[in-house]
Amino acid sequence: MDTYFHKTSNGIFHGLEKQFCYAFLGIPYAKAGRFEYASLIDDYGTINVFKPGPACMQKRAWPEFEHLEIPERAFYHKEYREGINFKYSEAEGLNLNIFMPKNEGIYPVIVFFHGGGFDSGCINESPFDGEQLARRGNVVVFIQYRVGVFGYFTHEEIQKEYGRDGNFGLDDMLKGLMWVNKNISLFRGDSANVTLMGQSAGAMSIQYLLCSKMATGLFHKAIMMSGAGLFPKFSLPRKSADTREYWLEVMKLAGALGFEDFKNMSAYDVLAAVEKQKALRKDNTYNTMPVIDDYILTDSIDVLIKNPLQMPLIIGFTNNDMFTMILANISKKYAKAHQAYLYYFDIDAKGDKNQAFHSADLRYVFGTLGTSWRPYASSDYKVSNLMMDYITSFAKTSDPNHTGAPVWEQYAGKAMHFTSDEVKMDKIKGFKLFKNTFKGDPK
Fold first, then answer.
1. Which of 34, 152, 212, 287 could lock onto 246 through a cystine, CB 3.0 to 4.6 A?
2. Could you tell me the domains of the chain?
3. Quick check: pTM over 0.90?
4. How far is CA 204 from the centre of its chain?
5. How do residues 337-354 score in pLDDT, each as one tens digit?
């Protein structure tokens, strides 16, 4: 392993030299205690950042909470995590990875938020390597944020202390962007040209940040993969006060004597109580996600979404996405309302019958097809290169179009249709999407 010392004004970063870029893995960007809002880290001295940092604490830390006996969870474990030794930490999970071009210069910045349903996920899963995008002249940053009970717990004691509660994970994303704004120039990045990209819960989080004045000026373009749109009312965040009853039940199941007792319990005992609650309730998703906290989100999303931060957008979905028809429709409506570039990823994954499953496009946009077990073909690599070139052009100029590629128009009834045979602007045909809506989860 070749390493590289990168000297900056706030520290010396002992990173990793890759073939086409330098990588700095596991840089701590903030620190926070349990159920506390994070504060930024500014001074580093000399720090070793050539190995991945730990993931934020979550259910995947223990096999009995990850439930790999469920086919869908086993599917995604094999797809993105099998064979990787993850570490989990509450104290050290707020870290980020940077992939920096080797040549001197000032480059556009692409910041990525992972998915995971707001209760799991990690930036060190196998698709998340920024080398190929850095090779094209981008500084690429992957930011971790708190998830699950540690990211979205609400309680009146937190409200009393901070004047808000909940949204620790969403606040971590804001803090990560603030860190990038302050420090990315030290890694050849242009803080005035930041493209925020995310998938699934990461994409939904970006849309929430687009609805927040707190994010003003922290990013300038956005790419939302399988998670953006005019949300149906059943999926809208609740007020933080309306979720406290749910978490009080979790505390009771944990045997906590009060807030401080629960705050100091072992992570295992906290997650065990959450598991018990999930078995008792059917509304778990709506209590374990971002909330209206009157700080980051100051009103209902269906109100805020009418006047989001204005910037260039790319939105996309796959042919066998989550709630495929619903996601396609809300994405089309949002793309039309905001002159976004819309894509429809219609390339069935090789090796099984799950078609273009939810997140199947991740390896294409990062050029990491080669780290998969799937027998990808030359046509897949061709599409992957094209998608990375579109993203690179968008990051540089706010327009994905570039010489030698099919012209990508802003959505007005047609989307960029990615298939194995052809890439072109086309109308989205609904029959496959309708059928796949009822197909069920990947297996």
1. 287
2. 3-236+297-437 (3.40.50.1820), 240-287 (no CATH)
3. yes
4. 8
5. 999 999 999 999 999 999
